[in-house]
Amino acid sequence: GTTEMWKEFDKSKVYMVDLESGLHYLLRLFPGRPSVVKLLETLLEWLVSLPLERIPYNAILDLVNNKMSISGMYLSDRLQWVGCQGSRPELRGYPCSLWTLFHTLTVQAALRPDALANTGLEDDPLAVLQTMRRYIGTFFGCQECGRHFEEMAKESLSQVRSLDQAVLWLWSRHNQVNNRLSGALSEDPRFPKTQWPTPDLCPACHEEKDGLHVWNEERVLSFLKQHYASPNISPKYTS
Ligand code: FAD
After folding, report:
1. pTM, two decimal places
2. 14-234, what's its fold?
3. Where is the ERV/ALR sulfhydryl oxidase domain positioned along the sequence (predicted)?
4. Which of 7, 157, 185, 202 could disulfide-link to 153, CB 3.0 to 4.6 Å?
5. ipTM of the complex
6. Which residue puts its alpha carbon closest to atom 39 of ligand 1?
């Protein structure tokens, strides 16, 4: 393939390019019939190009049900990673963008619960996590990942009672995964697995109690709601 130039990025930001490339990748991997894949691609193009901040659910239904005749639209072949770029092509990328996408979705749901109005998902604090769980279990190519994620979900997902708790659940499980994978072959030496957010990103998230490190979860929640919120999603490198 082509060798891409390293893109400078700010690790305190989330990159729209990573979210969009994650979506493209996800839809490419969807093992559907060609006509279904085509439909999803067209839907994606339409969603990405929509200038609205809020997409009415009925508009999507109308599009999928009535207006999506097969057209000559193709997804761009160009996938690029920024915040998710790895020091080698097989590192980071898609799995990183999936985490980023799902954190962004849990935070968006907590910040704007009204966005779920008329979807049948309103008032369900688990809507995003259950969707993620099903996706990871069914379509994410890494079976070991799916098994591990399913184990964590079985163990504690039912304790999640609010949209804020859903944000924190995903954060703490992701740290559990980071901990397990620290030093593994899949680790990018340039991006060592850490307990996140590191003190340089969020000093107030870290506290010490009886000489031991503890998280201040209230501060972590505020940090996540800032980090994965729209104003922190950078449009740099989108074309
Ligand atoms: P990632 O872990 O992908 O994180 C992406 C970005 O999210 C980081 O750069 C950081 O900005 C942010 N972040 C990091 N930690 C947190 C947190 N706690 N909360 C919020 N944001 C955070 N690989 C395996 O080898 N074995 C597995 O069992 C496995 N299970 C996985 C399960 C799931 C559901 C997913 C999505 C991926 C899994 N992977 C697994 C892949 C692995 O977790 C990483 O995605 C991959 O190694 C790339 O790591 P990364 O350095 O890009 O950071």
Report:
1. 0.83
2. Four Helix Bundle (Hemerythrin (Met), subunit A) (1.20.120)
3. 87-196
4. 157
5. 0.99
6. 145
